Amino acid sequence: MKQSLLDKIASKDARIGIVGLGYVGLPLMLRFAEVGYKVLGFDIDTSKVDALMAGRSYIEHISADSIASARQQGFEATTDFSRAGEADTLILCVPTPLNKYREPDLSYVLNTIDALVPYLRKGHLVSLESTTYPGTTDEELLPRIESRGFKVGEDVFLVFSPEREDPGNPNFTTRTIPKVCGGVTPACLETGVALYSAVIDKVVPVSSTRAAEMTKLLENIHRAVNIGLVNEMKIVADKMNIDIFEVIRAAATKPFGFVPYYPGPGLGGHCIPIDPFYLTWKAREYGLHTRFIELAGEVNSGMPDWVVGKVAAALNTRKKSINGSKVLVLGIAYKKNVDDMRESPSVFLMEKLRDLGAEVAYSDPHVPVFPKMREHHFDLSSVALTAESLASYDCVLLATDHDRFDYELIKQNAKLIVDSRGRYQQPFDHLVKA
After folding, report:
1. Fewest 10 Å CB contacts: which of 83, 213, 308, 358?
2. Is the alpha carbon torsion for 332, 337, 343, 349 positive or negative?
3. 91-133 residue pLDDT tens
């Protein structure tokens, strides 16, 4: 079985199945199609499947031309999981959020593997890319696959290879970002490395799926902890009337021993606000408490409240309360220059301001209409930035500093600016740093 699969991968005769066609699965599909593989994509969202089959993209930095090119190469999208047997590999790129108790929610992963298991066949390679706690692949996927009577490592191959996408970053692509891969058995690892080596410049094999799962968590916990540190430093610096962004810029001139991280209104994206809690939850099984990680999570989770406090204080100096004030939030994507809304701190800011009685609007050139989200609901469209529109708001809150904003226009016409991103380096009368 192994050699047959390896031969198919080497000759590009293997059909690549990708489950979940979002910010991770769609770029991966394009890369496989680009080098000549036929790809079968699976998603439960009919609107996504319909768009792809029509050659349209629903992610800003992925062009319709690239989708059309993949279609010409043989790419097909479907909601029919019974077609899983048509693919030789099944790469799972589905969400792994937290539940309301900030515990891992593996329902997307488990529902997906449960939907695929009846259609598994000998020779399949299954790869999980969704970020999760160490042990998920061995404890959850392996027994489900072997329940069909397959021997993993002989009949079917199982690996964990965490995604490393950075949406909107032109300096790194699916091809150029090194890919970590761990297998249940040596044969599993061999097939996984062969698969990803066909489309990615550098594949990094590790000893086990658990090591690969932990690698992804370490990457994001490293960022979460350092962002928590700099967010706490921002609060301290603010009390001392010191500009933390000036301090970071100065510290970053040190050519060794310092990596600059920047504070903001909270953490966003699917990984950094969520992944640390996957490890803290799993660590409890071993009687351990990850206090350092949890403290960083507390600091980062509290940043939206701190920013709203700065808005309240700024309005108060103008004899206004949040209740009844018109507040324009600039940027609702989780980071600059993308349309990705996952876990965006801007949305939490909007909800907190609305709950306090503000009349909230937003402007974001990358998100023309507030999307349907599982937990957040706003019936709003992006406000065009003009001198007149800016002047009509009591406060403009810079939450995500897209490069497409006209910052001079904003400065000249807004009555009050609360800047949570340090975009404005030089102070002026109606600017408040948050």
Report:
1. 83
2. negative
3. 999 999 988 888 899 999 999 999 999 999 999 999 999 999 9
> Do residues 370 and 380 make contact, with C-beta atoms less than 8 angstroms apart?
yes
Report the distance separating Cα 7 and Cα 142, nearest Å.
Answer: 24
Concerning whether 271 is annotated as a catalytic residue, the answer is yes
> What is the arithmetic mean of pLDDT over 168-178?
89
Residue 254 to residues 111, 223, 260, 401, Cα–Cα distance (Å) = 49, 19, 10, 26
Q: What is the CATH number of domain 233-433?
A: 3.40.50.720
Quote the pLDDT of residue 101: 81
For residues 200 and 174, what is the distance between their CA atoms, to the nearest angstrom? 7
Give me the phi and psi of 305, to 5 degrees please: -65, -40
Residue 168 CB burial class (10 angstroms; 0-12, 13-18, ≥19): middle
CA–CA dist 142, 151 (Å, integer): 10
Q: Tokens standing for 103? A: 């515990």
Cβ atoms of 228 and 306 within 8 Å: the answer is no
Model pLDDT for residues 370-385, shown as the tens digit of each residue: 998 777 889 999 999 9
Assess whether pLDDT exceeds 80 at residue 186: yes
**Residue tagged 């594949």 (tokens):** 203
Rounded Cα–Cα distance for residues 434 and 421 (Å): 8
Active-site residue, from 93, 188, 271, 395? 271
According to the model, what pLDDT value does residue 102 have? Answer: 83
Pairing of strands 157-160, 125-128: parallel
Angle at CA of residue 343, ends 280 and 212, nearest 5°? 45
* pLDDT confidence of residue 373: 79
Of 3.40.50.300, 3.40.50.720, 3.40.1080.10, 3.40.50.880, which CATH number belongs to 2-212? Answer: 3.40.50.720
* Domain extents in the chain: 2-212, 233-433
pLDDT higher than 90, residue 238? yes
